[in-house]
Protein 1
Amino acid sequence: MNLYHDILRKIKEHDTIIIHRHMRPDPDALGSQVGLQKLLQYHFPQKTVKVTGYDEPSLTWLAQMDQVADADYEQALVIVCDTANTARIDDSRYATGAFLIKIDHHPDDDVYGDLSLVDTTASSTSEMIALLAFENQLDLGEEAARLLYAGIIGDTGRFLYPSTSVRTFEVAARLRQYPFDFSGLARKMDAITWPIARLQGYVYDSLEMDQNGAARIILSQQLLQELRLSDADTSAIVGAPGRIEDVQLWAIFVEQPDGHYRVRMRSKSIPINEIAKKHHGGGHPLASGANAFSKEEVDQIYAELQDLAKKEENQLKGLSNQI
Ligand code: AMP
């Protein structure tokens, strides 16, 4: 049984296909969602294929959403890309279609959908959409290739993170055969505005780090307002602490207008997602998100991260003592 074939079979059975992805979209969410749309529009021009969700202003250059009416969902096939749990699906109408498919690469903590294809070994959902095309011998077309390439470089930090596999490079190589401006795309995704550059300066100036490489920074609403930055803009600096040699794992606490903190957690090698799960979140072993509802919870999460880094450091010391 090949789920990639089953998904294409379901697509062929429906005249209307509506594609969703997670809230606060990143390039992989948008790349997989709209990359799939372009692929299907290319091969099935007679079908109605729409994408829905909030148009993230900082990413409208990459892709934009369609207007989708409630009535469109009647008899529709709904495909949700890159979203582990139903609570994070952008546009709650996902449940009102005729058949629901989940395509994702996050740990399958919330199993949903009439058909579910979850591959945690994939670097990104964009990699999986490319495989959907390859497994079914469907030519991708230039537009889909560009979007999927953007999703892959977004979720792998341009082939930096350990999730980058041999297959990721093979898929990227096949996407690169299309004539889109891959260098311009990578440069655009790497570019930062002056306010983001200032925020990055603040992060390096104010980052707190302990002796085991656990680090944190708190970004207040006041700071974001002074720099005229939104919560979504902070995604541009999530990786910044990791560029410091000694930092092993880190959390960025972004204060929200309602006073709670959105927590963005990253790690170079020690899994941190169990901590995220304990604090209203989840995600990948090395890239997770959570929520803190008080300053005490902010400190608690940092203390848990420090504990993890300390355990790892002690284990390494124990190993080197045995040698
Ligand atoms: P972010 O720091 O927002 O880029 O999130 C990194 C990863 O953490 C995402 O790709 C999601 O897999 C996961 N994530 C973030 N926020 C949540 C949440 N509230 N619940 C579950 N997973 C989350």
Protein 2
Amino acid sequence: MKNIFIILIIAIISNACTTISADTKKDLLTYHPAYHYTSEKNWVNDPNGMVYLEGEYHLFYQYNPFGEKWGHMSWGHAVSTDLKTWKELPVAIPEIKNSDGSVNMVFSGSAVIDSLNTSGLFEEGFKFGMVAIYTAHIEKDGKGIGQVQSLAYSSDKGRTWKFYDKNPVLDLKMTDFRDPSVFWHEGKWKMIVVKSLEYTAQIYESADLKSWELVSEFGKIGDYAKIWECPSLFKVPIENSDKFKWISMISSAHEDTDYVGMQYFIGEFDGKKFTPDAQKGVLRIDHGKDFYAAVPFNSRPDDQKYPIIMAWVNNWAYAGDLTAEGRRSMFIMPRKVSLIEKNGEYQMVQKPVFSDVIPTQMINLSMSKSANGKTIEMKSNSFHLNFTIDLTGSKGFSIDLLKNGDEKSTINYDSITKKLSFDRTKSGVVNFHEKFPSIENMTVEPENNIIKLDIFVDNSIVEIFANDGQAVLTNLVFPKNIGGSVNFNFVN
Ligand code: FRU
């Protein structure tokens, strides 16, 4: 019976394998990703102000110019023309010291292109003014004393910035009121911002980005086990239709409430109020431990077709203790977001904007049960695997990634429970924090007994897209070796 399975194995190894000695291998070990963006040095967290202007994608982000720990929060800056490779630019918006000894850190927020000069901050007729709407986090003697929404603006494509001289533009006299996400909708600016410890998202509107009126709010729904941060609200296409729904993404707790994670709501937005649909349980964007603060790009030419998001790859549970190399953390590859209708319900789908990650080893494999025990030698820790797995006759499978002796990061699939798990307990350096070694899982329904996995491994990040992005898991790993193998086994 076992022999009836047809094996189709196509391995495309784009780079020729080279022989590397053990010593050189140690020297080549790096946690710096080859095809994910991160700053050359120092600390990064949330993506901020992601916006497109005149052929350039701008990624601003929370950045500490002075070290690899969180602090002195400023907006770092990188640009890309293709969302694939990024060029780091100097700090865009720095922390400011006030005359009374307090400091205004530049916390998370968004950026828009004020092409009609609604703000009056630019010269008449200037179409390319960029305005950043961010949270000024005011700290005195090391203690947060206020969070207010403020503006900075740039007339040279985000290279140099001025602070608006009448900041702040929104002040509720609160200490946890942050992360404004602003977008243009039907002739007005809309802002979604959170009262973090009240688990409430507020929606404001404005004609000029300077004066804001509260139009609605929602809160204490879905997951509010921990905190609400980095909200967003955007229109998302429903695949195979010409219809759209609105999605609000909120950074909050992970399923395991010892960690942070992200949820989303699907609903309708009438220009003032976001009304979430009834939902069964909490909708999770990514089931890994290292996906947070995701937000969409603003002002892309084909915004209406599909939004693109980026997220911070880390978890506040251990963020500051993460194994570092003069820098800490990174961002996911940009992902396209859409909705599909399944069993009468809508569900978010995420796909990488590009998957031809270069330079890297790429393996395409279709396998059925007789491919059991397959081992693929990898020449580095940066590669892309595309597996189509036929479950016929098996109870599941396991894939060891980055396998070197006992060291491995393992994907397990159980055909009965339909759970796909990722185990990083033996993935290499795990003991820098007790919360780091972990096993996460997500439900993946086979389609005609087939599971498709698109797996991106990039030195210290693993992004797994199951069944064309219907379930996604992002995790950090810190292998101690390079150039191990990928091992595939079916479970009988
Ligand atoms: C989310 C967050 C935001 C805040 C920023 C500070 O990771 O806590 O709420 O604006 O980080 O760096």
